[in-house]
Amino acid sequence: MKPEPPSTRPYLIRRLAALLTATALAFAALLAAFYGVGRNAAAVTDRTAPAIVEVEAARKALETSYAAARASLDEKDTAEAEGVGETYGAELNAAKQHLVKAGLGTVADKEGRETLRTATGQVSSYDFLIQQAARSPDNETLRRAYLGYAENTLRKKGSGIVSRLEKVQLSQRGTLADETSFDGPLWFLWATAYVLCAALAWLLAGTQRALRRRFRRRISPPLAGATALVALVLPLLTVLSLQIQDGLKLAAGRLGRIGDPAGTLPKVEQTMAGTHWRAAVAGWIPLAAVVLAALVVAGLQPRIEEYRFGKVRRRGERRPRTRFHNRMYQATAAFLAVCLVLLGSVVNGGWPDLREGRVTVLASWTGDEEKRFVAVLERFREKENIDFTYQGTTSLRDVLLSRVKSGTAPDIAILPSLGEAAEYIGDLQPLGKVQEKPLRSYRDYEPLWTSQDGAEIHAVPVKVSLKSIVWHDKALSRGLDARSAQGARWCAGMGGDATSGWPGTDWVEDILLQRSGKDTYMAWARGDLPWSSPEVRDAWRLFGERLGAGPARTALRQDYTHGPFPKPDGKGDVRPPGCDLQHQGSFIRTTYRDGAAATFTPFRDLLPGADRTGTAREISADFATLFGKSAAARKLMRFLTEEEAQRVWAKPLPDSEGTTVTAGEDPWRPFFLTYRETLPKGSVNARVDEELHARAPLCLDASDVMPPRMRSAFQHGVLDYLSSPDDATLTRVLDDLDAVRVGTARTPHADPPRVCN
């Protein structure tokens, strides 16, 4: 007995449902695929291209401003007549405007946006150094020194403004590449669209064959029109997509080779002019789907109404579902889920961030010091699943001020002094509850860190450095007194970009501490002792005499890293430094070549007139401050003062040849007041650690206790004095510093009760 043929009416209804479902799926895939290409046309023209052009325009304006300033200030006559010159001012203002626009419309990632903010803040430091050069038209040595510091701030590899802008551009060009590339998800969507459209066409053709057999009609005009519509829409959208993609590639090419920023954007807009109306075709795809669905209904509905006879199921009876049907339903559901995920990925441009927050950190560490600190942050990320963005700059003060005033302060800023932290008391979060346990561990040093009168604590030290020491080769331990009397034997460099002059402030502070004692030192540091007092004047005079006029002027042209163990140059050659002694803190060994036989001698042992029986030594510290209110920021703040973080921080890193040095000789090892580990006896690091934890007075770096305005004047006073280290210059410098001292308002509640413990 032959099986009963299927009822025609239910068959046609099922065929109608299949065609409408296929139409919805095929055109949804077409819309997603076409939109994935076309949506970037407007983004490239309206957002990405302007962002890239603004950053490039800012970079070129800054480069032009420096060239203009140099041309005006290189010669005494033009320096006196023009100062920095009109071109410098115009180009600097243009650069600032471009940076503001870049900040508002940047397409960089989170780290790129932080880098852009840092570069914008550095512009103030750069301008200040240029203006300082302009204020010294008669002093060629000082004028050229300031121009050199400004150039470093602008062009220094890794931490200069230009280098940071290049990092921003790298991030923005990554966004441009994403917007102009035909990547995997788009290939998948277009392949899916083609498969679904082919399936739809096959269903339409099969339906027409079935109708021809059952109804004896050659052709169904509506279904033929639907088939033609599919055959027309698919190649049309493919051609339009290829044209849009060609336009995007041409625009990317123009943005990759920016000659004239002012002319680049119009060229990009001209290149992309034809892509916008093509991209707008996406809005017609749903209409085409509606038209096709209407044609399908028009082709089948009359046949359904004509053929009313067939086997009718009883009420409530359901058509049995076979195993094949179940598998089909599951496969279809899985396929639709994948399509929705990929569509969401294309529309939203990526996957969601699954980390539990992000913390921004600003500090002064760059280069290898930055790598060491970032290792600590990476450990925190592994432990807490909280991401971070770190920015390091020597223009820390200008960058932080600009960000606080613009409402984009970092979550955590690590500052070099309590005096600087005092300026932000109104913006900082108190640390009493956040740091209760770590603060108890500082009880032996409490007078140095805590605020007066039981006030809230807003800064906590995370790292310390020993000063009051002189570095030299171990082989030169004898005869150091004779060498120290020769100015040319001192490796002295005052360059430090935005903070140039600070190595000289260390000299003056240390001489005063070792010769006049800690009481005089504290009175001067707190502003109670005038700069023109005999004790302070003698310290300055001895500083100038120790270096001598020639070496003093040379020091202005050299970076603070100029030391007795220079690293090899690009060819692997080591140039003899011509000097043996370096008055620097324990951190300076990071600038020495690998394997340097460096050791240190207390500065008081080489200083005429010093109290050789005295034990006071100067130290500096880096203070963590909390601006952010998020739980993630508080967690990182606690982590930085915990033993786990300090242990990671102290872990030796491989040197340039991949060899891991021992803990006792590791030049990068930071030091802490609350965390100690057993170090090989007699090693350099063991000696530094012993000095920091000996029962002897520790005095904070005096300039770090001073208000920032006073500290800045101190640094520039050092540069002024070294350009001509005679009594006339010294008197003028000290008088200027006293004027700043009198006119500088202090923040008493933020000062430490004592400068020395």
From TrEMBL:
Keywords: Membrane, Transmembrane, Transmembrane helix. SUPFAM superfamilies: Periplasmic binding protein-like II. The chain crosses the membrane at residues 187-205, 226-244, 281-300, 328-351. This is ABC transporter substrate-binding protein.
